[in-house]
Each structure stands twice: as structure tokens, then as C-alpha cells.
Amino acid sequence: MCGIIGYLGPQEAMPIILDGLKRLEYRGYDSAGMAVISDHTLAIRRSLGKLIELEKVLRQEPLPGQVGIGHTRWATHGRPSEANAHPHLVDSIAVVHNGIIENYLEVKEQLLKEGHRFSSETDTEIVSHLIAKNLRQGMEYLEAVRRTLSTIRGSYALAIVNAQEPRMLVAARKESPLILGLGEGEYFLASDIPAILPYTRRVIFLEDHDLVVLRDEGFQILDREGQQVERTVNHISWSPAMAEKAGYKHFMQKEIFEQPRALIDTFRGRINPDSGEVILEEIVLKDQDIKDLRKIFLVACGTSYHAAMVGKFYLESLCRLPVEVDLGSEFRYREPLVDSHTLLIPISQSGETADTRAGLTAGKELGAKTLAIVNAVGSSIAREADAVFYTHAGPEIGVASTKAFTTQLMALYLIALFLASRLGRITRDQVRRRLRDLLKLPNWVQETLDLDVQIREIAQRYMEARNFLYLGRSLHYPIALEGALKLKEISYILAEGYAAGEMKHGPIALIDREMPVVVLATRSPVLEKIQGNIEEVAARGGRIIALTEADNYQVQERVESFIPVPGVPLELSPIVLVTPLQMLAYHIADLRGTDVDQPRNLAKSVTVE
Ligand code: AGP
Questions:
Q1: How far apart are CA 64 and CA 487, in angstroms?
Q2: Tens of pLDDT along 361-399?
Q3: CA–CA separation, 171 vs 149, rounded Å?
Q4: Which residues pair with 343 in a beta bridge?
Q5: Residues of the chain whose pLDDT is less than 50?
Q6: 401 CB less than 6 Å from ligand 1?
Q7: What count of other Cβ atoms lies within 10 Å of the Cβ of residue 232?
Q8: Which own/partner contact pairs does 226-230 have at CB distance under 8 Å and 24+ positions apart?
Q9: Under 8 Å between Cβ of 435 and 276
Q10: Which atom of ligand 1 is nearest to the CA of 408?
Q11: Cα distances (angstroms) measured from residue 523 to each of 442, 554, 567
Q12: 606 close to ligand 1 (CB < 6 Angstrom)
């Protein structure tokens, strides 16, 4: 998704904007640009490709001035090119935008009829033209902006500068995230928190239809009706270092290794192993609401969807309630059976995924009670749900989701224990035992992280493969899917996750020497069946990489490679099994030289359909 940075203050804007754009690179982009006002002169610099190209342009032609906006573009309308890069300049107006303007074609046609000349293929350029047109008609600047916002439809986070108002910065948001950073006598706009952490931790999460006006003497936030509104100022606890690589080669690698701490931070303050209690103050459901529940619906996308699949096991087995799991992009177009006796749980690391957010909106309209599981504090999904369970994973910068996933599993397990306790489906003693196991989980995960060298050696053996198959059963089937997604999205190898029991129904036709098969084969009620699948694959010359306990010699002797994982209670095995798969994908991608943190075509948060 696109990244936006804005600055107004006493410092030179260019270096701050460039630094901020670099901190947003993980969002994925294909071009970049900047506009800065100096006195009453507005100049823009843009470039195709990575920020290093924009830096070259800025070195030759710097942008002096203290008020400016910057942008990294992830192309939606119009191919990646310098002409399509933001900002888009018309008369005295420059605009950067994240989102999709759905009625841009009809507006553009009208503007063309009126004589406007366009220099790009983007939807965004119509915003600059509309504001310029309104100014030419004599409208006051803010009214010109507000009239423009009432003309366009779709999603937007906008930052706007006007050479005629050199000490003013204007921004607006609807459905695409935008935050306002409050410095000492200076202001920052950004698409995400890491971009401004070095400058301030005082942040306002703008809401839909907010219009922000920044001046040296202060800021105003206006609502849809033009009325001034107050917004909460949040203090972000993350340090800038948390958003840095801290010596790791990639953010993804750092975030894989942060998982023991992230798991501790997620259950800290929420469990009491001595009393056998799970304390979730964020769940505001009354006892009767919980007793009246007849269904739970989990809605998510991508990796978060795989977490939802594991969550189904937890919630059904512990709460004895029917649980449905759906992709955000499917749920929003179905006629799901949801009512006031349904608890809808959207799961999202970014809290901005458009399809998941639309699922939340649809569920609320159908009367569901909603509890979001989100990592990004203050994000749209977090604010729009009745309640939110924050996974305290810290900023996840790598596009491939890792620590967010394992903390989502932790969240789902705690929520299941909490609800089961409130429903009387589980005794204090049973909770006590499970919580005692939970306290060991970070160490078990650390044991898998200590296998890093062995896993890299395995990665070297299989890095040239063109296809991979991942097999798992029961609680491990979603982990097979997740392992495959990790590999395909960062190494570009075609990898497919499959329910192992389905092998005879098709995939076994694929087995040959060329396709490694990763099998999750730890002790479980279905281990014998998995061993049967291993035999099927081995008998056809398949090359098997098994994840199994260090003392499971029966499995080890039937496979080509194996990763020895600690033996843990079944319900915690998804968390312990996924980390070696994250590491395997990471090392294969790193060895293949792909862009691990910003894989091609991908964005960290998919804020458009
Ligand atoms: C996972 O590695 C991907 N980055 C992607 O599938 C991601 O999980 C999905 O886009 C959902 O994102 P969210 O958790 O922020 O909603």
C-alpha cells in the first residue's frame, strides 16, 4: 500500500520526509515523490523505482523549505512510472494519496470537458484538479478542499500543500489510515506509526471524514460537517529501536526471533496461573451475553485467516460453540447467518485490511457482537469493533507476517479459555494446568529458534526447488497452509499447503523427486495417519522434510530431512511448529536473493479491495 509523509515545522522538510518514507518502505511501493514549499514556490521531485532513485534526484535538485509532503506509490490506477508517481501538481496545489477514488473516471471526463489537461493515468490527479478548479472559481482554500472531498467517492488518505498558503498543511482520511504526530512546535502526518517514531510518540489516529488543518500556531480537526472535533492523543510505547532492524539482516528475521518476547508481552497481565484465571478486561461482554452466544464467526485474510482456522479448533473444543471461519473477501459478499447471538471476531495485524474491515461492518449491521484481535494500536478495525484484544507483538515491519501470527494464536487460545471459563465448560484446575504450559511456551519457541543453523542447511538443500507441498492434519493443517504461504510470498516458489488426508484425492499425483514435501509429524491423535502419508510419499520417491520430536525415530528414519521440535501439548503445537516453517521460508528466500522484507507486488497492509 502507498505511504504518506507530511511535515510542517521549523526544520527543513526534505530530510524528514525522506527518512519517513524509508520507514514506510515495508508497505511496498514502485515509485516515490515529494513536494516542498519554499516561500511561495512549490516544487516537486519524483522518481520511478526505489527511494534511492528519489534520493539521487534530490541530491542534484534539493527541495528547500519547511512544509512538505512525500509519498511511496503502490500502483493501483496507472502503471508504475515517474508521471504517475505522486505528488500530483496542478496550479498551486500538490496532493499525495493512498486509497482508491471509485468515481474518478466520471469526474475526469467532466474535468476534461471543462478544459483540464491531465499528465497522469492516476485516479489521484483529479483531486489536484478539483481543488485548483474550486480555487479558480474564487472559493476559499479549505472550502475548496471540502467541496472536493464531497465530490469524490472511495477511500483516501490525502496530504495537500498549497503554494498560496505556504505555512499550512492539510490532510483528510476516509478508510485509508492516516495518523497525526504532535511534535514540539512541529507536526507530522504518516500512514503508519514507525515513520514518525524518531520525532514524536504523541499520535492522533484520524477517523473517517476527518479534515486536518496544520499551521505553525496549532492544528484543527474538522468533521464531515466542518465542525471542530477533539481526538484522543495516544502515547505510543514503541521505541524507535523496535521499528529498526537491531542488527538483523531483515525485519522478518528480527520479528521471527522476537516471538518469545511477543508471546510473553501478549499473555502478560492476562493470566493468573496460580488461581487458574484468564483476565481479559477488554472483553466487555456481560455473563448473560456470553451465555446467549450461539455461534462465533472468525473473519480474516491471509496469514490472519490461517490463525482463524486454528482458532476454530480452540473455540469449538473449549467452548463447545459452533465456529465459522471465513475470508474477509468472501464474507462481505455472502449472506452469512449472523445475528445478535453471534460473536464476530475479525483478526488483523494491521487493523486496516479492507476486506476484513468490511466483514466487521457487515457483521455489526447484522447485529453481531464484535471483538477484534489486532496488533496495530488505534487502527480502524480496533476502533470500530465493540472490543479489541491487542496482540502486543510490537511493530511488524516485514511484509510476511510472523510474530503477529503467533500472538494471534495466543490471543485466540486465551479468548477460548476465557469464554470456556465463563460458560462453565472448563474448571479452574484445568485452566491452571493449561496456563502453566503456556508459561513454558516462549522457551519451547526459543528451542526452535536455536535450530537456525540446521534450518539454513536444510534451506540450502532445497532452495532450487520449483514447487513445495506442505502437509498437515487437524490443528496442523492451518500451519501447513501458513508454511506454504510464507514460502511462496517471499521466495516466489510455488508452494501449496494441503490437508494430508487429501493426498489420495489428487496431490499424490504431484509427487516426484523434484518436489520437496514438508510434513508436520509431531505426536497427536492423528500421527499414525500422518505416518501413512509419509509412507505414500516416500514410496513414490518424494523428498520429505519432517517436523517431528527429537525422539521420534520412526518418523526420522523414513524421511530425507527432519527438524527436531520440542514435544508440547497439542493445543500449543501450532505455535511451536510454525516458527521453523517461518525460518525455512526466510532462509530459502534469503539464499535465493529475493527482497525478503518487501516481496514483489505485495504490501504490508491491503487497505484496498
Ligand atoms: C501474510 O504474511 C501476508 N502479509 C498477508 O497474507 C497478511 O496476513 C494479510 O494481508 C492480512 O493482513 P492483516 O493481518 O493486517 O489483516
A1: 44
A2: 999 999 999 999 999 988 999 999 999 999 999 989 999
A3: 11
A4: 296, 369
A5: none
A6: yes
A7: 9
A8: 226/146
A9: yes
A10: 14
A11: 20, 12, 7
A12: yes
Give the tens place of pLDDT for each residue, 492-522: 999 999 999 999 999 999 999 999 999 999 9
Which residues, 6 or more positions from 539, have their beta carbon under 8 angstroms from its beta carbon? none
Is any atom of ligand 1 closer than 6 Å to the C-beta of 373? no
Model confidence over 234-292: pLDDT tens digits?
A: 998 887 777 777 778 899 999 999 999 999 999 999 999 999 999 999 888 889 999 99
Which residues lie closer than 8 Å to 512 by C-beta, 6 or more apart? 540, 541, 542
Using a 6 Å cutoff on CB, does residue 399 contact ligand 1?
Answer: yes
Cα 353 to ligand 1 centroid, rounded to whole Å: 8
Is 301 a residue of the active site? no
Kindly give the number of the ligand 1 atom that is closest to the alpha carbon of 301: 11
Does the annotation count 22 as an active-site position?
Answer: no
Q: Cα 536 from chain centroid?
A: 38
pLDDT score, position 585: 98
Given 2, 312, 369, 488, which residue is catalytic?
A: 2
Give yes or no for a contact between 554 and 531, defined as CB atoms under 8 angstroms apart: yes
Cα–ligand 1 centroid distance for 303 (angstroms): 5
d(CA 609, CA 602): 14
Alpha-carbon span 521 to 476, nearest angstrom:
9
In this prediction, residue 285 carries a pLDDT of 87
Distances, alpha carbon 399 to alpha carbons 5, 41, 255, 311, 537, in Å: 19, 37, 11, 22, 33
Counting from 1 in the atom list of ligand 1, the atom nearest the Cα of 605 is 15
Does the CB atom of residue 307 touch ligand 1 within 6 A? no
Q: What is the largest CA-CA distance in the chain?
A: 82
Q: Is 298 helix (H, G, I), strand (E, B) or coil?
A: strand
Q: How many CA atoms lie within 13 A of 292 on its CB side?
A: 11
Nine-digit cell string for 442: 516462549
Does the CA dihedral 238-244-246-250 come out positive or negative?
positive
How would you class 283 by CB atoms within 10 Å of its CB: exposed for 0-12, middle for 13-18, buried for 19 or more? buried
Query: How is residue 322 written as a grid cell?
Result: 459452533
Determine the length of the chain. Answer: 609
Give nearest CA residue, ligand 1 atom 10.
Answer: 302
Give tens-digit pLDDT for 442-493: 999 999 999 999 999 999 999 999 999 999 999 999 999 999 999 999 999 9
Report the C-alpha gap between 387 and 383 in whole angstroms.
Answer: 8
Helices (H), 114-172: 125-136, 141-151
Find cell 523428498 and name the residue.
Answer: 543
Report pLDDT for 149: 97
Ligand 1 within 6 A of CB of 349:
yes
DSSP letter for 56, please.
H
* 605 pocket-lining for ligand 1 (C-beta < 6 Å): yes
The rounded Å distance from CA 373 to ligand 1 centre is 13
